[in-house]
């Protein structure tokens, strides 16, 4: 017994004997206008944070009275929102895109070269890739030649693809890496030669020779991509991204980096629908950490409306007898859905056309009728037949991207005709029916900024202030609804409403400080907004200063 | 052209205009006794290091004359060796073991409790696991009871297993987690109850109830394991570990952590022989980074000698008509070997008994006859029939663990008889035949220290100074041979001799500083040696101070 007592004493007394009656906090943010996005959409002045979570929400006076904080931030009247969630994006894809030079909207070949030089200063890439030039936008409307790139990059391969993907300019180092000479045969395309010399222009098939010479993506490249994407999303106050389709290897890389403290952003990762991925994940309990949530499968029901790949019930209005198509048979879709229904996972299906949507909605409806709280999602929910809205609910959730509406509005009526268009991008109707709507961007298809999402959802205009009065303004969401869609409703759609999506005690201390009050700022100022500071788990991960 | 010139100027001039005639280095280590382990086994005084690699080796005066280093370390006469390589260990397994309390060789239950308390102070584990107690070693030779553990850990489950794995002591929190009450039926074992109360002792089958209540291993747990193992190996100057069998997920985790800068140690990872692993890796180019080398498959031909699982040509000397057994058929082994031979991978096969060894050696020999430089390894090469030594070469490499000899010597002759024993642990003969031998430990089966490996290889005694004159002293290696086996030969066996294994310009700046000269220190002082400091890629990763 003596020994036992000794042991008990030797493990020490861990509680503090400080007589200070205030409670300890790590961070106190005061003098803010905080939209808590709680049930009542109430506002507050101050929050206390401890161990990465919100401890209390109240007035500045109350919280200063009650808490003794290691750090106090005076927000000087700035606005605070819960950390924003992008309910549908391609986070890893965005990161990979950032490893190539963006050459879209260049006004001259000089600008192309200048962007490449700027990129390489940052990246020091061993093989420079670029995409998006279009000589039709230049004063000299001719294919460029490689000479300048040879002078600037004598030893580093450079390969830049035209916007349509059918032509590529390679410098000599890239041609050498690909083993291309003026005598290389060019089947199914062209290797441009002038005066017996390569110009660097390759058209169609021969482009593959250069593409195959690009080094394979290493883990280090993947990590760089993830960190670059993280840097970008934090600038906009995003703290959780739903990645709409990842393979096992990338998911495990993200988990590893997060757990090692090398990646901060929270990811809700949808599993790409491959046999390998499903076999690996579906028999297991979903992978859930504070930073990563793997509990859903991404499925593609159809293609896109712009390219007329979306599956419609009636023919396209601008293409005779063309209906688009489902990407797999209804039987296959149902089989996969049934397999997922038998697992603990959600199914998140890309559905654009009204035909694809009704297949998805009816299948969900029959599988989930007696399956409890499953929250399966219809990603895009883009064109819905009037009679099919009824299937949406808090268990069959619309997940939409408002900037798609303002990007597509220029030609959507061509594809659909005025009657069908009424059920397209119909966010207000979806919300009224489901009682919930999750908002995202689909970046890199659209830009990353959630403020563009907010603007498109509420104002229904694009950044050219078009159209006057907004596109189908009856489908606009209120500012409150849009903010809920980017926070608590997105969290709910992820089964994460108990840990994020609002500023309430016990939830992760993810929040964004804004210079302007998103709920009251004049509409014209919304699109350019960025975060003043972004906090994730109580830690500042971005500061505009 | 003006624009081009502008661009060229704008990318800047990157070379320095410093007139200092000395070359830049990151680190200069002077006044050392450096065993370079180059071809001539030459020594030097100083090394210069830049960008993680050795730049030059020479006298202190020469290198100080020639290099201007950011940091200069005066080794004050200490000894330097190349970073040590363990050619056969279980690095991840060791790390996982470190997540449990080691209760082996405890002298009382009080010591058991004390070790648990000490462990928990460091680890703050949510479910404490321990292994290795044996009440026969205690004064009171009775099964312990849970009361002390209940008092010390009222809320944290504790489950500690007896050394034979057939009994377990659980505290009340662990019993609660397992749902065990005094009325729980105990089929195929026992749930000890005294005076109507659980004592905490479970025997055999009911142990599974507690084991199943232990939380699953998370990525965070895995990372902790890897970092704990790294910390341990760096204390001994080990900079590369060959992990003898890892699954894809752990290999990718290691790669991720290394590339993110969260794990430093270099790993040569043998792929565990499962269908999933082979399907995933074998069709790909081997994964090779500065820190990770995945280019081999681990196969188990037979079991262990101690438990009489090793496959012998003739019956065990201490078990009538018992030969041990191969773990798979010869046909299966050959099929796997042929598949690996058709890939760029090495095959590293565990072979203990002379029968297993001859199957492996003949298969290797026939597959590799015209296959060029493949360096397949025989892991353990433990008992070799006199007529089979001839198969070993620089293409069929013996990879052995000298401490196995001094651990097994107490009963090896019982198993094998005096004649067969002559071909067992016959390291000198293996070296003479192959011209190379790779040395390792097989930790956690043996202790981590490479100095114990060195001692066992050279002195052929265990740490009890037994036996006088050494075990089969004719099989002792010279100190130089043992050091080569732990450095350059191990590197060669990994296809890494161009980047590590000796201190020569261009190789990774991996080295260990020792307080004693391993080549000349009195033999009795060898077993307790540790590193004074360990450097990996020119960065100090361990310091004894």
TrEMBL record, chains A, B:
Pfam families: Amidohydro_3 (PF07969). PROSITE patterns: PROKAR_LIPOPROTEIN. It comes from the Bacteria. This is Amidohydrolase 3 domain-containing protein. One of its GO terms (molecular function) is hydrolase activity, acting on carbon-nitrogen (but not peptide) bonds. Residues 71-542 form the Amidohydrolase domain.
